[in-house]
Amino acid sequence: MAERVELLWQGRGMVFEGRRDDRHSITIDGDGDEGISPLAAFLLGLGACTGSDVADIAAKMHVPIGRLRVEVGGERVPDVPRRYRRLRFTYRLGGVDETDHARIERAVALSHEKYCSALHTLRQDIEFSTSIVFED
Questions:
Q1: In what helix (H) or strand (E) does residue 108 lie, and over which residues does it extend?
Q2: What is the pTM of this model?
């Protein structure tokens, strides 16, 4: 299953319009002034992926959730490329019966261990390639 997005430089600074299709777009700014920064977008993607898993798994377990907020924090190394060396996920839930807490814990574990595609993309065995096309 292949997906494709594109980024169009807006002609100034490090500002790009990111698009998945004609209906969905986001402004991403390497400086974080005119839009979300690339690494904040990365953290949002991770949080949305695992949060979606938790909501879906909980629904399949028939565990009602009143509120779900996922906070993702990242600690970066000081030297270039300033990659994340530590990620911290906090799940804040409301409206969950105490008898269902263990099932929510299991839903989070399943997301991290098996289902969250964004988290599993961080694995060391990922392959990537690059091509450059010069257009007139």
A1: helix 101-110
A2: 0.89
